[in-house]
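Two proteins were folded this term; both appear here.
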Amino acid sequence: MSADTPARRTWGPLEDASVMAAAAVLPQLLRHKGDATNAGHVFSHGRIAEWNPDQPNAVGTPEQHAAVALLPRVLEALLRSDDGTVDPEVRADLALIAEGRGREIPLTKERMHRLFPQAKALHMANYGSFGGTPIPVTACHNAYQLCAVDGDSDRFLLRQVFGVMEDVHRVLASYMGLPTTDNIVLVDNAGAAFNVVAESVIFNPAFYRKRHPAPSAKPLRITVMSSGYPMVRNCSQFYQDRQRMLRDALPEGTPLWDYQVDVCDLTEAMVASLESDCVALVDGIVDFAAANEADVVIFDHCAFAPAFVYPVRELSAKIKAARPGCFVVVDAAHAIGAVSLEGVFADPVPFDAWFSNNHKWLMAPKSTAVLWFSDEYADWMHPAVKSNLYRGTPLSSTEADRERQLGVLKNNSNGLRFPVDAGPAARRRAEFYWQGTRDHTGEMSIVDLVWLRRELGDDRILARTHELAIQCAEAMAEVWGTAPLVRNAKVIGSMNTVKLPTDDHAEVVAVADWLSKTHSTHIPSMRLNGKAYCRIAPQIFSDVEDFRVVARRYLEALAAVRKLAAETTA
C-alpha cells in the first residue's frame, strides 16, 4: 500500500446506543485527537486541503470541520429503517469496519444490503449501467456538499478545489497502479471523457496533419468495434456531420478531408477464440485495422455487448506495430472496480488514452469518471467546457500568448487562486476542475470509497463479482435451456453474456418492455451472428437467486407476449 493510500486507523469502543461513533467507518472524516494536520487525502482528520505548494495540507476552516460533526447525523439518517431506528446489525458491521476487521464481513446479499440502499426485494440482473454506492460513502458525499461547497462556497470553489482534487488524484492513481498523477483527470462520465479525447486529438486538425503531413484530402480512418458502446460512434458521427457542413460552407473545390468510421464486427471465429487463447480475436482486429489503414483504433477494456475482457496490452501493442503512430483508445467504461488493473499501466503503456466510469463498478457516486492519457498527448487535452482557466495549447498558441495568459490569471481580481507555478500537469488539471459551479463532491468521496473497499478487501470484491458473473449466467441458462456465450473464466470480468430463449427481435423488445414496466428490471440485449443474447451484471449485494427469479419472469413475459401475438393474428 502506497503512502498516498488512505490508511486504516484504530478507534475506541463504539457506543451501543449511537450511530455517531460508528462514523469511524470513515475515519478520514473524523477529527483525530492531537494530529489535525496528519493529512494526505480529503478531509483527513477533519481538514480540507488548500492549494499551497509549501504547505499542501493546511487545516481547513470551521465550515469544513463542520462536516465532521455533520457526517454522523447524515449517516444515521441514511441508515434508518422504516420504523425510524438503525438496525443493530448494521451498527455491528460498521463497528467491524471501524476496527479494521472489515474482511470478516461475508460479501453476501444479506450482509451487503446493510451497506447499500438497494431494496432486497428488488431482483435486478443489470447493475452494470448505473452501479450502486455504499451508504457511508453517500453520507460523505452529502457532508461535502453541505459543508465544503455550500458551507463556504467562495473559499472552496475559488481557492481550495485545486488542492482537494490533487488529493483525490493521489488516491485514485494509487488504486490504478499509476506511478504518477500527471496523466489523469476526472470528468463526469465515460462519454465526457471520450468527447475530450475526440475534440482534443482525434478530430483535431493538428492530428490529421500529424498523420498526413503532406497536403492531402485522404480521409482520417477510425476503426471501432461492433461490441463497443454506441456513444463512441455517435460522437464520431457528430464530427463527420460537422466536417460535411464545413465543406458545404467553403468555396467549391476547397480541399478538405473526411472522417471515415470503419466498424470491425466480431466474427464467429473471434468469439470462438475467447474460449482459448484469443488469438483469432486479436489478429482479426489488427488485420482489420491494417487493411483499413486505421489512424485511430478504439476498443473496449471490458466489452459492453457481448461482455468479455479484451487483452488490452497485447492488442494495443500489436495495433501499434501494424500501424505505427496510430492513436489507440481504450474505452474502459466498465473496467475500474470490475477487473484488476494490475500491470495495465506498466511502462511502456502501449495505448494512448484510457477512460473508465467510477460509478459502475468502483461504486462511486454518479457523474465521476477518470481519463488517462499518454505523455505524448498530454498537452493536447482540454475539457469539453472551456472556462476561465483555459491554458492555451502549444499546438497553436505561441509561448508569449501563454505567458501573457498566465500573467492575467496570476493577477486576477475575483479571488480565484490558480496554481500557475505548480507545473504543467497541475495547470492542465486546474483547467478541468474550475468550471464555475461544477460539483466535485462525488469525486471527493472517491477517497472514502477507496478506503472502504480496502477495508472490506478490494480483492474480495473483485473475486465476488467475478464469481457471481459466472454463477448467475449458468443459473439463467439453466432456467432458459440455453448457455452462456463464453465459459472461459479468464475473459470474464464482472459481467457475462447469456443466450436468450428467443431470437425473435420483436419478442425481445416486447419482453424487455414488460419486465421494465412490471418489475423495474432492465436486461440489455444484443444480436451476435444472428442470435439474441443478454448481458448480466451482478453486484456484491446480488445473489444467484436474483437471476433465477429474473429468468423465470422472462419466460412468463415471453409466454404472455406469444399468447397476445397469437390472439392478435387469430
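Next, the second protein.
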Amino acid sequence: MFLDNDTIHIDESSEGIWSLVDVLLEEVNDEFNLSASILMKCQTAHSCSLLSCSNIDKSPLEGGEKQLVFRLIDECAKYYKGPHVHKISDDLLKKIAPLIKRRNAVNQILFIPFELSSEFFIAIAFQRNASLKELPQSLAPRFSEIILLSKKVSDMDDLINRLHTLENYVKEVGHDFASSVQSTLPKLNNVIKGLYEGPMAIDKIKEAKNEIWAAYRHASNLGLVVDPNYSITNGNHFNFIDVVDNVLNQYQSEIDERHIKVTVECSLPSLNVWGDDEAIASAVSHYLINAIKYSFGSSTIYIYINDVRSEVEFKIRNKGMKLNRDEYPNLWKCGFRGRNAYERHVNGCGIGLYTIKKIIEGHGGNVCCRNIHEDQVEFSFQIPKDKIFMKKLL
C-alpha cells in the first residue's frame, strides 16, 4: 500500500464535514456494528485531511486530538500497510475512547487504506466488540460509495456557486444598461420639452448618442466575453491613434461628469496597425471606462501611445484605488472583481478586463497591470503592428 513507516502528518481539513456524509457513515456503523468511524483523504503518503466522521464528539483533527489520530494511523501502518483488523494499545484506546459518543469501543479497529480514482483514502472504524476477525468484503466499497457521494456534493456546491456568480453577473449587466438609459432619457426629454435650444440642444443630443453607442458596444461585447477563443474576424489596416481619439470622444460626457482631465501623449500623427479595429476600440474603451470609474474626482487620466519597434504600446494611468498584488492573477478572469471594488461599491460586472485580454491575445499581444507610485494605477497592452501570421485568424 502507499503508506510507509515514516511519520505521517495530518492537516486540518478546509472542506469541513458534510452532514449528509455523516448520516451515511452512521448507517455503515449500524450495518457493521461499529461504534464510530473516521474517513480521510490522503494527498500524499504523509498528508491526510478529514472528509467526515461519525459518532465522534469533535473533529479528531482539531487541537490535541490531531496527535491521537496521528498515533493511531502511525501504529496501524507500522503493523501492516494494507487493510486489516488491528488491535491498538490500551494506552492509545484510553485516550481515544472519550471522543467516541457511544463509549463502548473495544481496542480492536478496522484500518482500511484504499484507492479510488487515482486518489488515496483511509477509513478507520472502531468496533463495539471484538467479533470481527477479518475485514468484511463489502466494507471498503461502502466507504468508496461515500467518497463518490462527497464528490457529487462538492460538484453540486461548485455548480451552485457558479450559478450565483452568473446571477450577480446578469444583475450587474442589467444595472449597467439601466444606468445608461436613466442617464440618456432625461437629456432627450429636456430637448423635447424645449429646455435646451440651439447649440446646447445639439450638444445634449450628441451626448445621448454617445451614451447609446456605449450601451450598444457593451451589449456587443457580451458576445466576446463568453467566447473563450476570440479570434480576429474583420482584419484590416487602420490608424490606431484615430481609434483612441474616437473612443475618447464617445466617452466625453462620462469624463466631464467626473470633472476628469484626460491627456494623451503620442509624438506620432498616425500609427498604422493591422487587426480588428472595432475589437481594439472595445479594448481601449474598457480600459478607459475602468480608469473613469476608479479615478478620484477632478483628477487626470494619462494615456501613452508608443511605437515600440514592431509593436504598438497603449498605457493608461489614473489616480485612484491601488491594486491588491495578491489579486493580480485573477484580475483578468471573467466575473472577478477585486476587494476594493466591492468595499467601495463601484458598479461593474467583472467582464471588462477579461474582454480586453481575449481581444489583445487574439491579436498576438499581451496585457499588463501594476501600481505606479503610491496612488496611481497603470493598465497597458501591446500588439504587433503588422505581423499577421502572429495573430489568430478565422
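The first strand starts at residue 9 and ends at 10. Residues 139-192 form the longest helix (54 residues). These notes refer to the second protein only.
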